[in-house]
Automatic annotation (TrEMBL):
Keyword entries, A-Z: Membrane, Transmembrane, Transmembrane helix
Membrane topology recorded in Swiss-Prot or TrEMBL: Multi-pass membrane protein
Organism, scientific name: Oligella ureolytica
Name of this chain's protein: FTR1 family protein
Entry similarity comment: Belongs to the oxidase-dependent Fe transporter (OFeT) (TC 9.A.10.1) family.
Record-linked Pfam families: FTR1
Gene Ontology molecular function, alphabetical: ferrous iron transmembrane transporter activity
Amino acid sequence: MGGVALGLLVAVVLALVIYGVFSALEGAPQSIFMIIMQSLACVLTVQMVYWMHKNARNMKSAIEAEMLKSRENYAWWGALVVILVAIVREGSEIVVFLSAQIMALSSDNIGAFSLEVLVGVIASFVTFYLFILTGRVVSWKKFFSVTGFLLLFLGLSLLMRAVEDIVNLLVESDCVELLPAWTCSELWNSSDILSTSGFVGNLAGSFFAYRDQPTLLNVIVFVLFWLIIAFIFQRSNRYEAQTVKTA
């Protein structure tokens, strides 16, 4: 419990630091800080999925071995560090991921935000409990493959928002001429089918980078993101296959 408490404390402190820095900035610097946080959250999300992809098969046994080793050696601090690092890692990623919501907090919406966070925490515990119950049916590798794919879409959504904020910043700074006109041209309009102003459309936009009126720049970012992801993971698979052959 000590490791969990310390990890959560570090995550809360990080959230307060992010909120403090954002509140101290105004105008363009504030927008730039927001873009940096969104881009960083995207990178952290992809890095986490990549790590899960590489370690999903042996992660459970590795963690159990580390905890058992600490218990046998009566090194309680070793278990504390393992738990602390895990909680800080995931907590930091969540804080960065939620930076946009954290920065927009006020006395009017902090209650609703806290409720949403509480629901998310409860849902995560329920999901993990259900996974433990079905652990013999669903392997860790399959579980992380599905959740990793969803997380990659979240990373793409963050990247898309960062790019759109860059465009908005250029427009506000009268530097829009730096972008070719064709990149901002609207390709289609699917708002009649699924509008981002509605609940479902907004959810799809937040979690799956859906746009009901995408520009060519949106499509370019979408395609490039998945091409880069495919290259990274194919390279990882080839390296893993070569390692197995030489072992």
